[in-house]
TrEMBL record:
Pfam families hit by this protein: Exo_endo_phos (PF03372)
Domain Endonuclease/exonuclease/phosphatase residues, every copy: 27-117
SUPFAM superfamilies named among the record's database cross-references: DNase I-like
GO terms assigned for molecular function: catalytic activity
Protein name according to UniProt: Endonuclease/exonuclease/phosphatase domain-containing protein
Length: 164
């Protein structure tokens, strides 16, 4: 991407320039409880639709909440649940897909929403702390990682770097 000369201390201007030249938009959002925002579903979907990929943190989704999420978002997204130590491989997706981890209804949990047709090359997660989705969109390969970081997890980033 070619950027014209600019004052790079003006971060707002730089981000605007980058967004206007880019066709691929990503949102990372600490949603602080996806389930508690279901009454705002229409507004959430309107926000999600503006981006090609949405990374959510602190979804606060437990195993018992899966049906609520599927009911709320299943019309818009295929829901692909990720479980610790389980790899999902080579899934061709024509519809939007929500890759979702489960941990607890009151803490952790992350999601990766891909709003373009794609092939999921592999996906996995660990303990509601992160979800890792390696996908091909068009002819380009991407790796998306949504990470829940808590100050008690000071070793998390190092652990992630050494895993793969």
């Amino acid at each position: 991407m070619h950027l014209p000369p600019a004052n790079f201390t003006d971060k707002k201007k730089l981000l605007h320039m980058m967004a206007s030249e880019s066709e691929f938009k990503v949102l990372s959002w600490n949603i602080r409880g996806l389930k508690t925002r279901l009454k705002e579903k229409a507004a959430l979907l309107a926000i999600f639709r503006k981006y090609d990929v949405v990374l959510l943190q602190e979804t606060h989704i437990g195993e018992d909440d899966k049906c609520k999420i599927t009911e709320a978002f299943g019309g818009e997204y295929d829901i692909e649940t990720l479980k610790d130590g389980e790899f999902k491989e080579q899934l061709n997706r024509e519809r939007k897909t929500m890759y979702l981890t489960f941990f607890s209804s009151s803490s952790r949990g992350v999601a990766v929403l891909i709003n373009k047709p794609h092939t999921c090359l592999e996906a996995f997660c660990e303990g509601g702390i992160y979800a890792w989705v390696h996908a091909e969109i068009g002819s380009q390969k991407y790796t998306f990682v949504s990470v829940y970081y808590h100050s008690d997890d000071d070793h998390l980033i190092c652990d992630l770097m050494f895993r793969q």
